[in-house]
Amino acid sequence: MKRVVVLISGRGSNLMALHQRLCMLAQAETGVAEIVAVISNKPEAAGLHWAQAQGIEARWLDHRDFQSREAYDEALAHVVSDFHPDLVVLAGFMRVLTKVFVQRFAGRLINIHPSLLPAFPGLQTHQRALEAGVCLHGATVHFVNEQLDGGPIIAQAFVPVLQCDEAQSLADRVLHAEHRLLPQVVVDFCHGLVALDPLDRLQRSPEATHLLF
Length: 213
Ligand code: GRF
Description:
The chain is α/β, with parallel strands linked by helices. Helices cover 35% and strands 24% of the residues.
C-alpha cells in the first residue's frame, strides 16, 4: 500500500472523493494506497475536521506563524516527511510552494487545478474561461514544479462550456470532473503507470488514464 499525504486549505471535497475511492478499492481487496495524513495551512479548514472525524491523522501548520515562504515550506516539508509519503497530493492547497519543498518531493508531488492547463493558471479560472469565450474547460492533474500551476501534465478532464453557464454552474461541473480525475490519477501513480523521469519529463504508460470526458 502506498502512503499518500494530502495538503488542503479549505473544504476538502477532492480529499473526500480520493478517500472514498481508496476505501472502495481496499474493501474490494484491490487497495493501492491509503491517506496517512491530511495537512492544512489553515486550522479552520473544513476538510481537516472531516479528516479528523474519519480517523485520519490531521495536522495544521499555519503559514501566518512564519516569517517567510521558505521558512514555512521547510517546516511543512518536515511535517510531511514524518509520514514517509510515496505521494503528496495538493488538493486545494492554496499556496505556491518554493524550491526547497518541490525538490524534496520531486516526482511524488501532484496538484489538481480547475482549468485545462496551460490555460488559466492561478485563481478565478471559471470566470476567466467564460470571459475568454472558450467552448471547452475542465481540470488538470500535473506534477508540481516551482511555477504557479506549472509542471508536466498527467491527465485532464474536459467539461463543455454551455451557453447558459455562469461561473458557479461551470465551477460545479468542473468540480464534479475533478472528483473523478484526481482519484484516477492517484491510482495510476500508485500502479506505477505515471512517473517523472530524472529529467523531469512525464513517463506515462499506455494504460494510464490521460483524458476524461
Ligand atoms: C478545487 O477546485 C481545486 O482544483 C482547486 O481548489 C479547489 C479545492 O476544492 N485547487 P476542495 O477543497 O477540494 O473542495
